[in-house]
Input
Amino acid sequence: MSAEEIERQLGIELRPWQRKILNQIPDNFSNGVIAIRAPTGSGKTLISLLLSLFKFGAKRIIAGVRTKTEQTRFWEDVRKFNLGVVPLAFIAKSAHCRLLNDEELKAMKELNIEDMDMSCAKCMFALPHEERANIHLARYFDAWLNAFIDTNPNLPPKQYIEELMGKLNDTHCTYDIEKTLAKGVIRLRRRLLLIGTYPYIFSFPSVVFESILSTYDEDYPVGVEAEDEILAEKAREARIAVIIDEAHNLDKLSDQWERRLSVKRMERVLQFGERYCKQLLEKPPNPLDIAELKGIDVEEAEKMIREATEFCRNEFPQVKQTAEALISKLKDRMKELGKEYEVTENAYKRLRFEHINELTLDFEEFSKLIMPLIRVEDLVSRARIIRSFTVNSGLFYTLYKYKETRAPEYRDQLLSLIDPDTWNFYMTKEEDEVYVSIKPVTSAPIITQARAKFEGPWILMSGTLPDKDYIEKVWGLHVDYYIDLSREVRIGHREVKIITEVTSEFKHRTPEMYRKYAEVAKRIILNGDDGVYLLVYPNARMMIDIANLMMDLPSSIKQVREGEVRNIPVLMNLAKKYPKLVIHAFNGGSFIEGIELTENGRSFIKYVVFMGVPYPNIKDDYTKDKIRASGLPEYRYMKIQAWMSVMQAGGRSIRNNEDSAVWVLADYRFSYLSKEWGLTSY
Ligand code: SF4
Output
């Protein structure tokens, strides 16, 4: 279908570039990758939806987004353009869950426990068994669906759930209802858009989308004879399209798969063990409920409760003592190793074999000690805080054994890592706590697995999408169409200034250079217009050292550093309260990507000052491993990473066509890099 025909059907007028893309992609495009590089505010969301619906004929679309703001953009566009698609935005399951208390939620977040690591089995709030659920649902289907479609997923999670529950007027779990509604939409043969964060495509929560999308298969189970016509219809109905928004983030999937263990985590787990034991002793669960929950008979449930209670009463005090002694021993050892490896904040050092051996064995010893607490946790909570520690510890140990022996039986136990050969052990530090970490050095296996899971056309979109060669080599994704609109589609106004009197080159990182940087920044801020100034440093250390030299700016100019304020609404209030707000952020931190200071689509950020070239830290072992795994020459890899950081941070200042911002590139190396990157004023 031509772009013009689509415009006629929808009664809308597309932008010329949108028309061009629609006319460029053939109608029969059914299973390949299209990569689109175009800036934020240019209408990428709409074009991805139009391609999916009109070019690929997809009945179900999955949109993988990074943040809730991006999730909302899809939800809004579907409603605004009347595309005849049901948009269902999936937020974290833990946000929906009524059986987790605030402490557990906080701990899950802190310990980075996957959202799906909680059990929903036989939950009293779950909908009845699916067949009955459908009957239950049939009565309210439209009203409930409208409740989801009409509730803004960008509301704070608690408010979102409260608002939903008010509209549903029902006590069942909102997460369960949403999943069942999605299946209902498929059964009614309506077009469905599932919007979820990356884990819904690339990680364990993808089982939710997989299960929803298999609804049609359930109607025609394998083995059931069906007419050719029905099979053809089935194939048409099952056609899906996958949209990956802000797809440059695929590069960071490997970071998101990281698993960490530390002394602090051991302490947290033990605290929860103690709390759960107390809970069990004070208020033991009803054996009938446990029997029902676990699908066992009452005697067995009674035995389980009795054994767990006896453990808590008689053995736990001793276990606690031994565990505390182990924690205390490990605390000293981790500190010692932290010093030996010279670990600095957010940097990674590859762990040597003898230390991997020593530490994984210690974690396993602790894990064995707390193992009986898993049964206690199982009886009193839906969270999986203790279990998740033991699972991670088991993974660490097996990965170590695999690396040591290369034995296939260990490899077989590491299926959840996809490709254990790409994982390494590191030591790192965050907020002064030393961690042992395992993480993959490439995102490619994760992407390949998701690609196989969700077959059909994929659309990758981003304003900072790396080139085709990079996507194919580093992410392992063959690209059929690479459409670069970055030069032809320009949003807002950008003035680019280069300052050559400073540099962040390693050999020049001296107190004198930092003073120069501070002077340059102060000059810009004092002489510039009102608004938010985003200062982007190559790393956290430089941010602290240089920001310390800027404390003499007048107090009417508010300054905050990344890490001090994590909450965007708080930053928004500061941006509104102070005529000039200076935000110190660093490369690799969360602000560069996630800071969305906008009102009515317009950005509050008027200046982005790059305090050096944001190359990744070449001294960092994880960076070195990633470069090696990429197969690219080091300098090329580094330049692409720096370009992505500059474009991302700069892009925070231009969110729509009315925005106008100044980008100051403070480093002499920008004089040639900016030419290479086509960074000009417009
Ligand atoms: S079904 Fe129950 S356990 Fe699962 S998320 Fe809902 S309330 Fe929580």
